[in-house]
Amino acid sequence: MREALILEELVKNIRNMKFDTQAVHAGTEEDVHGAVVTPIYQTSTFKFKSVQHGASLFSGEEEGFIYTRMRNPTVEAMENAVAVLEGGARALGCGSGMAAVHTAFSALLKSGDHVVCSESVYGPTSTLLKTVMHGFGVETTFVDTSDTEAVRKAMKNNTKVVFVETPCNPTLIISDLAAIAEIAHAQGASLVVDNTFMGPVMQRPFELGTDVIVHSLTKSLNGHADVVGGIVVVKDEQTYPHFRKTLNQIGGVIDPFNSFLVHRGLKTLSLRVKHAAESAMRVAEHLEQHSKIAWVRYPGLPSHPQYELGKKQMSGPGSMIAFELKGGLEAGKTMMNSVHLCQLAVSLGGVESLIQHPASMTHASMGREHREQAHITDGLVRLSVGIEDVEEIIADLDHALQLC
Ligand code: LCS
Q1: Is 244 an active-site residue?
Q2: Residues near ligand 1 (Cβ within 6 A)
């Protein structure tokens, strides 16, 4: 009886439950009809009871829904679920991962500010900093953030944001988040981490001093390659209203239907990413000893340059593998053109295995000079391991490699 009471209290406070329970239940509120999942509130606007009611909703005197760009029950359910899973205070659903990155920059930066950013990041993130943000008077220094001293040296008096992808896209280099958080905070800057590659199951950036997490929901959090979305998660409740106002003004919000799909995807997040990581480990080991492969970069392999840091900072190696064939770019192209089960497509973190060529695809916009600085070689092939049968994934890769 006593145990049942304790459990009832715990369920009311989902933040005290374990991750797998949170993944299934977080964000879902009591529904008037007793629905077990949050329904899709496919409405752009909400009716006021009176002029007075509308006015007090707008002034904030009363709580409620006004207009879907500002707040929507289905969107909010998904946002609350992600906030709980990341261990942050609040989250803001965005129309894409890039909208989330842009929202975070817009909330934290103004003209005259400086950003320190990982040199190996998703191509459009670097381009956003070099073009749009640069156009608004924000300067960026790109550094190898796996070199903590390089981060310290890149800091300036006007540095307001340190932006880190770890492991980064596509080189899988790992940066020491706790050390970088200390450097950023000593300067009064915020540490923003793109946690898309690992997600909250295997990496907990807030526990390492991060202030803001961004995600492409398009990837593992949704996990089924049928949604484009993004999210910003803030660690502190006090910073939330400013972020919400910024997103409301920029307008890059996610819609109710996509939020519903992401919320559904979250329920199996743990099962999917653990299974994919187990398979990725097998695939990486197999590739590393394959006679046609020059090198493999995977956080689970002892050959990874930050293997020990990865083991300390992450609770699993993830599902992303980078490698290069001995025959370089030409052999890589033959391989990517010859797979059947793994699909030649960008994106990652889904149930299906995807293979792609960063230099001509995801990181083409970065330009050759930046790619060379970030060690994104022309021959680098990126594989996102899905949850298909691992023997069949390996057989598919082996067959394609035979033709190279
Ligand atoms: N951050 C990271 C680490 C990403 O990998 C991506 C997309 C984004 C942000 C942007 O998210 P989106 O706007 O596409 O939802 N990464 C992709 C990739 O590597 N292949 O295709 C998209």
Answers
A1: no
A2: 96-98, 122, 165, 169, 194, 196-197, 216, 218, 228, 230, 346-348, 362
State the residue range of the domain holding 277.
269-402
Residues 114-148 have pLDDT tens digits of 999 999 999 999 999 999 999 999 999 999 999 99
- Both 102 and 233 in one domain: the answer is yes
State pLDDT tens for residues 23-58.
999 999 988 999 999 999 999 999 999 999 999 999
Out of 219, 235, 272, 297, pick the active-site residue.
219
The DSSP secondary structure of 71-99, one letter per residue, reads --HHHHHHHHHHHHHHT-SEEEEESSHHH
Write the Ramachandran bin of 256: left for phi over 0, alpha for psi from -120 to 50, otherwise beta.
alpha
- Protein residue with least CA distance to atom 14, ligand 1: 97
Residue nearest to ligand 1 atom 16, measured at CA? 347
- Give the mean model confidence (pLDDT) for residues 223-241: 98
Q: Do 108 and 250 have their domain in common? A: yes
Contact criterion met (CB below 8 Å) for 172 and 304? yes
Of 69, 152, 274, 292, catalytic: 69
